[in-house]
UniProtKB/TrEMBL annotation:
<keyword id="KW-0472">Membrane</keyword>
<dbReference type="Pfam" id="PF14322">
    <property type="entry name" value="SusD-like_3"/>
</dbReference>
<keyword id="KW-0998">Cell outer membrane</keyword>
<feature type="domain" description="RagB/SusD">
    <location>
        <begin position="283"/>
        <end position="521"/>
    </location>
</feature>
<dbReference type="GO" id="GO:0009279">
    <property type="term" value="C:cell outer membrane"/>
</dbReference>
<protein>
    <submittedName>
        <fullName>Putative outer membrane starch-binding protein</fullName>
    </submittedName>
</protein>
<feature type="domain" description="SusD-like N-terminal">
    <location>
        <begin position="101"/>
        <end position="228"/>
    </location>
</feature>
<dbReference type="InterPro" id="IPR012944">
    <property type="entry name" value="SusD_RagB_dom"/>
</dbReference>
<keyword id="KW-0732">Signal</keyword>
<dbReference type="InterPro" id="IPR011990">
    <property type="entry name" value="TPR-like_helical_dom_sf"/>
</dbReference>
<dbReference type="Pfam" id="PF07980">
    <property type="entry name" value="SusD_RagB"/>
</dbReference>
<comment type="similarity">
    <text>Belongs to the SusD family.</text>
</comment>
<dbReference type="InterPro" id="IPR033985">
    <property type="entry name" value="SusD-like_N"/>
</dbReference>
Amino acid sequence: MKAFKYILLGFTAFASLSCEEFLKEEPEAFLSEDQYYKTQADAVNAVNAVYFFLNSGGSSVQTPYNTLFNTGMNMAGDDEDPGPGATNPDVRSLSVLAHSSTNLRIYELWQQHYAAIKKANVVLEKVPAIQFDDALKTRLLGETKFLRALYYFNLVRLYGDVPLILEYQKYVNAADYAIAKSPSADIYAQIEKDLTEAASVLPATYASPNVGRATAGAAKALLAKVYLTQASLPLKVSAKYQSAVNKAEEALSAADGGTGNYGYDLVANYAEVFLPAFKNNKEHIFSAQFKSNSLAQGNNEWPRSILSGVPGLNGNYAHMVRYYTQGNDKFFSIYKLYSKGDKRRDVTFVRSFTSPSNGRKYALPIANAAVPNDSTPFWNKWADPASTAVTNQSAANVPIIRYAELLLIHAEAENEANGPTVKAYKSLNKVRKRAGLADLTTGLTKDQFRDSVYLDRRLELTYEYQRWFDLIRQRDANYNSTFVANQQKVGKTNAAPKHVYYPIPQSEIDNNALLKQNPLWE
């Protein structure tokens, strides 16, 4: 990935020119748009700019997979809360579901995704006309369609109906930018089209330095997830369950009942899914790529989950588990949902930090009458043992879809389509076995198996920006949404059906006369 992670379109460099320089009638050096899209290098850079929105960061910028999904989404769910270091009022209001259409994080999520889609649309318009190697051109266009599908998939899950923009907008009149929302079904149809076309042209693997780019297997795995999402709430297109099964099996390895030849499998040690030393291993189907302390491309999540005041560590404890009451324990959290033998727990969390300055351990005890010697669990998935610099940026990649999730998608969809079959058990049990858990009890009903998959998704994928989307789509035995009940269970008494989707940002409505607010937010 290092060949493309840090590149912006060349013409963005001109943003730093002074007004005097910029207004010269005959600039000494100016690169117009028509001059830019001429070479193979231009095409590669243009596609790299679409990837850029997955992982870019810095002190003042958040992109979806580098902090923004956490501060703008995870905090609204049932597993996480803003810690003492998270003082932003938009984040704190979101965490208690008191947000509104003017919430900055809700706007940033919208803006970041559409900015990425705009760059994708530029590529799809400009690159076909550039004369260079046809095979590389086809691949680059496939990567771009994959990324556009991913960005629209996030948008439609966050906001419901949204504007579907498929062309490069370069209008003169502001009114031409006014676009109405398209139905979710149309958004999903385009996502399916983009992913299907991407899967047909992308390679199975890459050699260095291109490891980490979108592959055919990634397109198929993501499409399986798209099908499962459509089959679930709120769309309830139940026929898509079988589509999810079929597509998942195209990406699953033969040993797991699939026909895929992509080399995917679970790594034996759960910790190696996340440790930077093992990045882009056989479990990573597609991930946001990070490099510690390099051009603002480090993963900024790690310092946000470190206890403040540990000498030598730049933690600000901005992200913490959500505590709620269960029985007589007023400090129950997702940490306590893991069984003691679950190997995932002590990779996902740590209870103390060792100072690199003095070697001492620092923890945060809890005065909990129900649990003697209780202490605070801190999120640990994006820790980077090799990074001891003051910034503590991590080089840990963020999996956007990995093989364990593909197995869980397959298990869930197979159960919904055909009951808890041998295939469904096999996929779920493989994930459980790696976690050190016994095989799931046989003879479960479809409803019981569904609940088991839901729990393992929660424990397997926590802190990976998955839980909010699962809260939206999951249901009970009668196909009723469990969203409000799950939120109220952890003390979010404000939870209401309207919170399933975010409101359309008010600033977007103000600038677009055709854009209407989501009904329950009017």
